[in-house]
Amino acid sequence: MATEVTEFAEPQETSYILIRVLGKGAFGEAVLYRKTEDNSLVVWKEINLANCGDKERRDSQNEIDILSFLDHANIVSYYNHFIDGDTLFIEMEYANDGTLYEKIYNQTSLFPEKTVIWYLFQMTSALAYIHEYGIIHRDIKTLNIFLTKSGLLKLGDFGISKIMQSQSGMAETLVGTPYYMSPELMQGHKYNQKSDIWALGCVLYEMLTLRRTFEASNALKLARDIVLNQQSDINSMYSQEMQKLVTQLLQKEPANRPVCEEILKNSLFTKQGDLEKKVWELNSVARRARLTACSVSETTVPVVKAQMCEVYVWGGGKITPQKVEFFTKEKSPIQVECGESHFAVVTVEKEVFTWANSQGGSSMVGQLGHGDTAGYKIPKLVEGLSGIPVKQVSCGTDFTICVTDDGKLYGFGSDYYGCVGCDTSEEDDILSPIPINYFTSIPIEEISCGDSHCVALTKAGDVYTWGCGEFGRLGLGSEDDHTTPQKVAIPGKHFIKHVCAGSDGTFLIATNGRLLASGSNENNKLGFNSPTSGLRKRKKKVFDIPCKYMFSTVKPLSRQHIISVSPGTSHSACIDIYGCLYTFGCNKYGQLGLGDYKKRSTLNRVGGVLVSKKVEKVSCGDGFTVAATDDSQLYSWGNGENGKLGAIFKEQGKKTSTKCTSLPRPIFGSLHVVPYLSSHHWNTIIIAEKVLNQKTLKPRVSSPKYNLLNSPKAARVPFETVPEDSAFVEGSQPISPACSEDLPFTSDSSNATSPPNSRPSSGNKDESSIPPWLEAELQDAAFIRIPSKESNLLEIGNLSPVSEKDEKEIYGRTTADKDILIAQLRAKVDKLTEENKLLQETTEKQEELIKSLRLHP
Ligand SMILES: Nc1ncnc2c1ncn2[C@@H]1O[C@H](COP(=O)(O)OP(=O)(O)OP(=O)(O)O)[C@@H](O)[C@H]1O
């Protein structure tokens, strides 16, 4: 379709293009690929498991599962992994500047101490991180320490690391590379994390001497050297502190070696400034570089905002957004939610209002909480919660659960699956709010209701699920239903920040931005499927996962830092920290927003009109998606039947019903900030903030000083009030400048009274944001004319003689011209003086003559 081609480039499925085989290890190969999705380079390790038994396969899979949770700037990230036939595939970050081994052996002179400290700091903080998780690396060596061109160091190859069951646990197996093996290992003793510290000491020694700590012609001699701990001396150019640290790390007795936390406190690091910040900055630059396609629009910082909150609903038969007048006139909303046939709103007074959209004929079963089964058409206060401050509400298909300020839960509606947690009542339908007693002494932070199950996050960070368990949506390892809340096992050491229940699956968002999910992955709606197109030894294009009974990380999204997720009936959408929108799942109605209706088996980044915007909110319903962007626009796409899209869009040439659109389309006419958005089944409800008045600061392009010097006009209006975007015009008034004295910023005020493109006249204090003190100073200031070109004249410390040309430009004439003119003037004055003198003499003579004539008539 012509219209679509211009608006949206055909999205490509992610595939891998082989770059080169990096090398072969003991168990397989490491191969470098380019990922077509974002042109990033990734390494896939292909490990042959043909000789491994079932248990070993399971163990290696479990071990990598845990390693994939690690998230540290100095550890090679594990993005994805799966076992296909006899091959274990692991996708990981590519370190693009070789290994520390190569770096050391290419050195022609010793490293400066500063470099050694920088590398050692990064290695130690990586080790501190894994040790905290109870992981021992067990193969620390310069060959397993990778470098990036940006100067970062990355600890990799956890191939033989072992997850310790407890911090004090001892692993039995003798593994590792002999040169780095600690005395206790050589002697056949047990070891713990201190063996990694020994290896760290060996690496440090290698960096300081450019040779191995213990080199011996045979294993026996090596063992003897290590046990006797005979190191050679370190060059005296290195500080005493450094030499002391090597000795501490290479202590024969494990107990005498420091732990990572102690090493990090060494004055060698503290003297070097904020090394942690440097690592963080370098890593975030690399992360940003990966987001090449993500051109986020210029950010402005709001300063003053006057706004009005309104509630709109659509869908369920209502084609265009309907304003719910009640919340404009009487109550101010702070949170909204919808179920299949009902809406719920929490107001600033912490009250809950519910009402029905019984358009489809569905009967009420108590989900409104008004004590009966009437289908109230306008918002009605849930009186059973009067006096109980509610901070959040969530709607299931036909039930509602509220969280109070002190973390208590109240539920009402259908208890068919035990969602309302009513373990005492015989009835399935709870018509008025009842407390969910299970949580009386476990305060809840957040609740999310799916179609027929619930997930709650406690204030302590634990996750509980209950209700229907089909497809493993409760993440409890089975499909069993549970009428009482069950604590969920969270893999790794993830701290959960948000919980989100869908129709038959559940998402969890961890504090580190990882997305975890459990339940049905039909059509990839939980995002688990991995693209494998282009990978050697893999024929199928996608590695398909039908469902998960336990929570696992959604690995295809492990490189994104997810902040928000919304599961729909057959698809899902999530937003990352940069405001990029990703969709996955069924695309029958174009609900993935990719400009077509093709089946998509993996993850997609929504582009088109949204590519340059920051998506702030998203919600998925049954076959449709709604998204709000940072420029106060609202978009919808997918199945438009029954008004699900809040507007009527016509899309030519598509195969499904004429009410579908596969591209994000702006809805809602004018522009609004949407702080809350919820879709369920065919309904959508939003809070729309109408910004009546907004003033923002944004960095100015040129320095006001420069304008002041260069243009007399600019000197009068150094801060220009940018005419308002028509976005926030309704009833807005100009705001007197509050922060215009902050020189690096220019004021951008939304002002309804001045027409677009009109410039304020100078000196008008209402329109110009010039501060009064500066205005006064400018009025009194002498006017100095400056050449339009930046000549040497302006550069302090570079006062070269003024050229004739510049003089002419500044003063309109040269010094020579001036001299001639002065001479001419002098001559003129002289002539005049002469003439004056003559005249005076003549007058005197005439007066004398007249006098004598009077005396002698
Ligand atoms: N993430 C990575 N980034 C850059 N190069 C890598 C990465 N992982 C592995 N390599 C390189 O690929 C090659 C093969 O690595 P691999 O891990 O398969 O074997 P190895 O580490 O040499 O041996 P083994 O795993 O048996 O100890 C090595 O040269 C290694 O430096």
Write up what this structure looks like.
With 857 residues, the protein is an alpha+beta fold. Among the domains are: 1-94 and 283-300 and 699-731, Phosphorylase Kinase, domain 1; 100-269, Transferase(Phosphotransferase), domain 1 (Orthogonal Bundle), CATH 1.10.510.10; 332-441, no CATH class; 773-852, no CATH class. It has 17 helices and 40 strands. Strands 1-2-3-5-4 form a 5-stranded antiparallel β-sheet, with helices on one face. Strands 10, 11, 38, 39 and 40 form a 5-stranded antiparallel β-sheet that branches. Strand 12 and strand 13 (342-347) form a beta hairpin. Helix 6 packs antiparallel against helix 8 (240-249). The radius of gyration is 37 Å and the shape is flat. The N and C termini lie far apart (123 Å). Residues 1-7, 163-175, 291-305, 696-771 and 773-803 have low confidence and may be disordered. Bound molecules: adenosine-5'-triphosphate. The site of adenosine-5'-triphosphate has 18 residues, from strand 1, strand 2, strand 3 and strand 5. The site of adenosine-5'-triphosphate (ATP) has 18 residues, from strand 1, strand 2, strand 3 and strand 5.
